[in-house]
Write a structure and sequence with these properties.
Elements (H helix, E strand, L loop, with lengths): L1 E3 L8 H7 L6 E9 L1 H10 L3 H14 L6 E4 L2 E5 L3 E7 L5 E6 L5 H18 L11 E7 L21 E5 L2 E3 L2 E11 L5 H16 L6
Parallel strand pairs: 5-7, 7-8
Antiparallel strand pairs: 1-4, 2-10, 3-4, 5-6, 8-10, 9-10
């Protein structure tokens, strides 16, 4: 579900107008998150670390209105919630896309996510929910603790779906850190909002209150 966005009452309207027609209005930030407790929890509970990261990232973005604003049929709208698609690695080292529907708790997300991965590994397709914009586009680069990231692009300034990439975890001062890249449309949000996403994501994985 979505509603038309109230542009006239938006305190960012002048910033939106400034960036909306840029040929390349996207900006990218990258930061490390401390995933020590999340990794330990997943090991203890036999949960997928990748799916747990996806669950808490989705919880973070859905708590923030800016991450749910999109262009839809030439209108600016705000969705009640957004879901996820993510790259998955095939056995022949190609990749395809997988759709993950939201679930209310981590354990349900893990169970449903494992089923979804098996389904889409069998389909081996890039044609996944292509008609929807109420999504976050995720990728996983588990081989590299990257320090920067750049996406391929179609030079379409009306493509407003945020893109998030998880990198390879690494150890530093007895803690496990994971690089996370976030790319967003500058007409939709600013650095302060991406910063709040990182803060909220870190809070969620550091103070996990989950039920089975």
């Amino acid at each position: 579900m979505y509603q038309e966005f109230e542009l006239n009452n938006w305190n960012r309207r002048s910033i939106y107008e400034f960036f909306k027609d840029y040929e390349d209005p996207f900006f990218n930030l990258r930061a490390n998150l401390d995933v020590t407790e999340l990794y330990r929890f997943c090991k203890t509970k036999n949960l997928s670390f990748s799916l747990a990261g996806l669950f808490f990232s989705q919880s973070a973005v859905n708590s923030m209105p800016e991450f749910r604003v999109r262009y839809l049929h030439a209108r600016l709208v705000q969705f009640d919630q957004v879901e996820a698609t993510q790259t998955i690695l095939n056995s022949d080292e190609t990749f395809s896309f997988c759709y993950f529907a939201n679930q209310p708790i981590l354990f349900e997300y893990d169970r449903a996510g494992r089923i979804a991965r098996e389904k889409y590994l069998g389909l081996k397709t890039l044609d996944v929910q292509n008609d929807r914009v109420d999504l976050i586009y995720y990728s996983v680069i588990p081989w590299v603790s990257f320090t920067s990231f750049k996406h391929a692009g179609l030079h379409n300034n009306r493509q407003t779906v945020p893109r998030v990439v998880f990198g390879k975890t690494f150890d530093q001062n007895s803690r496990s850190l994971m690089p996370v890249s976030v790319e967003v449309h500058h007409a939709m949000m600013d650095g302060v909002h991406v910063g709040k996403y990182y803060t909220r994501f870190q809070e969620l994985i550091s103070t996990m209150d989950v039920t089975e």
